[in-house]
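2024-03-11 09:14:02 DEBUG pipeline.ingest accepted 1 chain
2024-03-11 09:14:02 DEBUG pipeline.ingest length=159
2024-03-11 09:14:03 DEBUG pipeline.predict start
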Amino acid sequence: MNRALNTDKAGLAGDASTGSEPAGGQAARHRVLLVEDHAGFAEATAALMRQHRLDVSIATSGGDALKLAEECRPVLVFCDLTLPDMTGLDVVHALRARRGANDCLAVILSAMSANDLRAIEGHQKTSEITLWLPKPLTSRILIDLIARLDALQPSVGSA
């Protein structure tokens, strides 16, 4: 079942590197595609993900996300709801059509409130979105998603 989560404001890291390697020189746990058109937010979110040993690739538009997904084969996709060329829902729908419904977890990130996201989710008749989250992403939510990926490892690929 899809759901929007209310998140706290803690958990964002500082500066991010432009590479995709996780922090600390440890092996990556999972491949992540972050689709975000605001560079500062994308880098801060990617830094948080790298702290949790995730291999992060960043796309700044829906079209770029679809191309990059073919290369990086993510198991977790975080997508902004509003992008310059299409909606995050369109991106996830296209990814699912290309790769299969169970190939990755898909999370919509938005500057909207959790209540507004729940309202949108209620109008969307789709099971393509795993979670609807208000920005910013927190460590607590990321840890929960990583645990979900770890539990699904036989059906969702890992790095």
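2024-03-11 09:14:41 DEBUG pipeline.report The beta strands are 30-35, 54-59, 76-80, 105-110, 131-134.
2024-03-11 09:14:41 DEBUG pipeline.predict end
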